[in-house]
Amino acid sequence: MAIDGLIILDNTGRPIIQSGFRSTSSSYPLLHIDALNNALSKSPNSVDPVIYVPPYNANPATACCHVQCNDIRILCPVSGDVDPLFAFAFIQTFVDILNEYFGNVSAATLRENFDVVYQWHQLLEETLDAGGHPLTTSSNALRDIVLPPTLLTKLLSVAGANINSTINSGSGLGSGPFSSPIPWRKAGVRYAHNEIYFDMVEELKAIVNRHGTTLSSTVRGKIETNCKLSGTPDCQLSFTNPQVLTDCAFHPCVRLKRWSESKVLSFIPPDGRFVLGEYRYLPNLSGTPRFTNSSTPQTPSSLAIAKENVAIPFSLKTAVELEENGGTFDITLTSRLTTRDIDRVVAEMHLGEGAGGIKCIAARGGAADRYGWGVEGIGASWAFDSNKKYTAFIIFLLPV
């Protein structure tokens, strides 16, 4: 009644590695691989993220949750009464572990580091217990079992050195796997310079009607952290206005009681890169709602939604005219900020499957290249993607 295991497929649908699946028959993972490959052959561009797998012999009916990650696909068979979001959350955690080990995860990367991948049989067994529940998902703890591929570890492996026993026991970094009393932090970490970095990354998503009125807008953010501190540091992070942070989800290292009482983040951080927390930005509710349609009757629920809307820093208007053998369109993007610049804005317009070519004129063109990054000056450019059938307008804006 939980997650049954993991399967990693290459871009041709062939398995690269899978977990043991000890509690099921040998045909169990093959049923899910075939179910996914059959669904991809019928509709490559629109496959449901959760695929029904019918019963076969002694195997009951199950479901296959899958996620595309570059040119590989990760399958997570589940059985019984399991929320698919639980499986997808575990897949995302597993993808983060892969990124910690290999950087850019792809089939080529897994083949180049197959000596490490071969040890992942043990790693896969550590991430799930016998009952199908997540067991160890901290990259710091898993690195004590299977070392990430580096030039040093490869040279030591060629020389015939026992890398795990050398690092885990002979250098003062602990007595072996899980030697640290803190699950998410390795024991005996040492740095010449003690540093910790925080990046606040926020994403604005909004729904705007054809008149330019904001119907819904939400800002979600996360605190990306890079810790390079020695020993077992105990950190505190405070905010000037913590009331604007709501719907928070923190890393297990954060002391939730301290946050609920004083809105201060108190934690012993993991070593290296991790996400300290995620949140939703809640604007000041004491003011009046912005960008609302006064002609539409406002109900209490719509007023509450409007107050929580975040002001969009620009407006985007389109005018499209379709003809029998083509069409014309006009896109107008205007900045609403008067105090600072907006730069590197990308507006994408989907043209449909029948689009074969396009010719555009950028009103403020000339300064940006085809991709628009790293170009000095103010301007705009455009590019047409013949595969995805969309046009991207890359614009550099000044306050207006």
TrEMBL record:
Domain MHD: 193-400
Keyword line: Membrane, Protein transport, Transport
GO cellular component: clathrin adaptor complex; endomembrane system
Biological process, per Gene Ontology: intracellular protein transport; vesicle-mediated transport
Signal peptide stretch: none
Compartments (UniProt record): Endomembrane system
SUPFAM superfamilies for this protein: Second domain of Mu2 adaptin subunit (ap50) of ap2 adaptor, SNARE-like
Protein name from the UniProt record: MHD domain-containing protein
